[in-house]
Design brief:
The protein is an alpha+beta fold. 40% of the residues lie in helices and 20% in strands. The chain is built from 15 helices and 16 strands. The radius of gyration is 29 Å and the shape is elongated.
């Protein structure tokens, strides 16, 4: 009988926090500066420099831990993790091994077979390393220390995930929580959210974990899903051939869809952790925790429930609209301005999501003003522009945030308001299509659409199809 295998996956997710300055110095965390311009003696590891903890980093880590149902270590401390890479200026990283700020949390995720609870082992604060840039033309490697000292929270899950689908659901839930809290923008393409995948396989029914590998260099959800499928297949092939899986760190090449070994996997003892002598312990009192709890914003489940109650939206529509805090805020402003939440929801769930997909953009990159979309919705309701014309206008609003009425006027999209002109065209089309008129009189309702289409064509779209339909019905009795 052919063996069946189960995949066991745990994640180490690094989230870059949104503080304006680094975790232990006053250098900027802004992305994209010229190499080595956001640096100082502290974040470049100069002898004699001393770290000072950024309080905002603790606040963000605390907020995230509370939102993910974690326990809080009210006395936590920092440790030195020793390793010797060119991108690590001190030759150690300041992290938290022994007493992390958060522990024993969980998130519920939605999958195709229902909800699943993913446990979180811990969350800890740490500093990021620099960035190595490999120059193939000059055959050398350069180091940019701008990222060195940028604050991170590392979220370590339990090995509770069994498929790429569950992994992506967990990451999407984690990203949504971070964005709602405002603790991180979680842009994978900029490295502000990075996931390392720890994966092993075992025979179905076994309670013994297999040998795991850790995969790095995963900068999109699609790459993560492909890496999981690829590594699962690689490990099963080794076991089927009677070989052993080696515990190691592997690098995923998304172009080749293959992973290759980077180094043997280190254990905690290899890093020679010890308490950082330059940083005092952090004490988080009850009042601080209470204040952070009270400051938590309305989260996605509460917002979705409110949309159903206040705006009369379906459970599905409310859930979709609230997946992104940024889009939800744009929707709310648009709905309030136009006074028609359901129409506003249709534009966000239809055209906005379509254009996001076509343009390959993240929800947070949408920049059009709610005032312009609200004005477009109002002009459609007044019969000043038809649906086809409105979609053209909205595409311009989405891309360039144009003023809708100015664009409608400038591009001849405004519907003719002359009742006499419209009636004359309707009479002309009915006379030219006597067969279709006769079919409609005999009960063939579908020809009504054909007649409306002919009128729209004759008037070059400058009419309201609903009004034309009513005009035809009034004339054909």
């Amino acid at each position: 009988m052919e063996k069946q295998y189960e995949t066991v996956i745990g994640l180490e997710v690094h989230v870059e926090l949104a503080s304006a300055t680094k975790i232990f110095c006053g250098c900027s965390t802004k992305f994209g500066g010229a190499p080595n311009t956001h640096t100082c003696p502290v974040c470049t590891g100069m002898p004699g420099s001393l770290p000072v903890l950024n309080k905002q980093v603790v606040e963000y880590a605390l907020a995230l831990g509370l939102a993910a149902n974690c326990g809080i270590n009210q006395h936590c401390r920092f440790d030195r993790k020793n390793y010797f890479y060119p991108d690590n200026p001190q030759n150690y990283q300041i992290s938290q091994l022994y007493v992390p700020i958060c522990h024993d949390g969980w998130l519920m995720v939605d999958t195709s077979v229902g909800q699943k609870k993913i446990r979180i082992h811990e969350m800890h604060m740490e500093e990021d390393a620099g960035k190595l840039i490999h120059d193939e033309w000059e055959d050398c490697s350069l180091v940019d220390y701008n990222r060195s000292g940028v604050p991170l929270v590392e979220i370590v899950s339990e090995p509770d995930m069994r498929s790429a689908e569950e992994v992506i659901a967990y990451l999407e839930k984690l990203r949504m929580i971070c964005q709602y809290l405002g603790v991180s923008d979680c842009k994978l393409q900029e490295g502000s959210m990075r996931a390392d995948v720890n994966l092993s396989v075992r025979e179905v029914g076994s309670d013994k974990l297999g040998t795991r590998t850790e995969m790095k260099n995963l900068n999109s959800f699609k790459a993560i899903a492909r890496a999981i499928d690829g590594e699962r297949a690689r490990q099963i092939e080794l076991l089927e051939e009677g070989k052993s899986v080696v515990q190691e760190t592997r690098r995923w090449d998304d172009n080749k869809e293959y992973s290759y070994a980077m180094r043997s996997k280190e254990d905690a003892k290899d890093y020679r952790y010890f308490p950082d002598p330059d940083l005092p312990s952090v004490y988080i009192d009850d009042e601080w925790i209470s204040r952070v709890k009270k400051a938590q914003p309305e989260m996605q489940p509460e917002k979705a429930a409110r949309y159903q109650k206040d705006y009369g939206l379906s459970e599905y529509d409310a859930s979709q609209l609230t997946q992104s805090r940024h889009l939800a805020e744009l929707f709310e402003k648009t709905a309030d301005l136009c006074g028609n939440p359901k129409k506003a929801a249709n534009w966000f769930l239809g055209e906005t999501l379509r254009l996001l997909k076509e343009r390959g953009l993240e929800e947070e990159e949408v920049e059009f003003s709610p005032e312009h979309l609200a004005a477009l919705i109002a002009s459609v309701e007044k019969g000043e522009v038809n649906n086809q014309g409105a979609k053209e206008v909205f595409e311009k609003i989405f891309d360039e945030d144009v003023e809708p009425m100015a664009y409608i006027e400038a591009h001849g999209l405004k519907i003719s308001q002359s009742a006499g002109e419209a009636e004359a065209v309707v009479d002309k089309i009915l006379a030219a299509n006597a067969d279709a008129v006769e079919k409609y009189k005999n009960g063939e309702e579908k020809v009504l659409g054909f007649l409306v289409g002919q009128i729209m064509k004759e008037m070059k779209g400058k009419c309201n199809p609903g009004q034309m339909k009513e005009l035809i019905i009034s004339k054909v009795k």
